[in-house]
Design goal:
With 185 residues, the chain is mainly alpha-helical. The protein contains six helices and no strands.
């Protein structure tokens, strides 16, 4: 079991620091503006939460960042993800995601990776700090080092970049997912 709450907490802090004028700006996740990335994060929060709770309810795929009160709504979804995955039983078995036969453990690690990497994307794009506990980064790195090169949909991440083997864990995670660790938009 991995504690998703630190990554959720940092994501919530990052969302709170997004100004309205940031929403149309670019992000290190080149196919997304900051607003698009927030919509993606909201969807990512809702899907694994439904999986953890055994719900077949589909996530709201609307443009979250365009709705009044989006910060509160997305924050609630992110917080719910951390709570839903906060117990060993949810990490067992196979998820009920249509067309996928990934284990719940893999889905939980995917959620962690999404929140670490896209949390950094949002922080980098909006000039905010980004800091996670070592154990959270280690769990994410162990996942991306194996999963990203063998991802069922290889185009989900950019081509990996080179960093020194002794680079910080966050830098190795970012490089594995196609991001230049020193790039801040």
């Amino acid at each position: 079991m991995i504690d998703l709450n630190p990554a959720c907490g940092v994501m919530i802090e990052g969302l709170a620091g997004v100004a309205d004028d940031h929403l149309t700006g670019p992000s290190p996740c080149t196919e997304y503006t900051v607003g698009d990335l927030i919509d993606h994060v909201d969807l990512v929060a809702q899907g694994p939460t439904s999986l953890a709770l055994g719900s077949r309810e589909l996530p709201d795929t609307g443009y979250s960042h365009l709705k009044p009160g989006w910060r509160d709504t997305v924050t609630q979804h992110v917080r719910a993800l951390g709570k839903a995955w906060d117990g060993p039983a949810v990490w067992e078995g196979t998820g009920n995601v249509p067309g996928s036969h990934l284990s719940n453990s893999t889905w939980g690690k995917i959620a962690l990776t999404e929140f670490v990497v896209h949390g950094w994307d949002i922080a980098a794009a909006t000039g905010q700090p980004f800091d996670l506990p070592e154990q959270t980064l280690q769990a994410c790195f162990e996942h991306v080092a194996v999963f990203v090169p063998n991802a069922p949909l290889p185009d989900l991440w950019g081509p990996p970049l080179e960093v020194p083997p002794d680079a910080a864990l966050l830098d190795r995670i970012l490089a594995t997912t196609g991001r230049a660790p020193d790039r801040r938009d």
